[in-house]
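Recall the central idea of this unit: under ordinary conditions, the amino acid sequence of a chain determines the structure it adopts. In this exercise we apply that idea directly, starting from the sequence alone.
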Amino acid sequence: DVQLQASGGGLVQAGGSLRLSCATSGFTFRTYDMGWFRQAPGKERELVASISRTGNRLYYKDSVKGRFTISRDNAKNTVYLQVDNLQLEDTAVYYCLPKYGSAWLYNAWGQGTLVTVSS
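Accordingly, the structure predicted from this sequence is:
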């Protein structure tokens, strides 16, 4: 079974930083693209960043460009999200998810990590 365990969230003041990690197991990590999604209270879950299998192709949602950095360590089966200059609107539960080809593994959501930004 695919296992996804996000960690690294917390309470941070606006302008602060966190490094989120997502440890994975149950699939061949190096053959999957990976993404970070977030879900804010009362809102739909949205993709904020993704990284290709080898790390050479990156995507960022416009509102996080220049502030978030996605990376991966294929030896550790782990994907990271460095979140800098956090804003109030970044408050959400953050999740990672694998993607094989064009298909996100939507049935594999794991435990997310809560990021709360205070003013």
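The longest strand covers residues 92-100.
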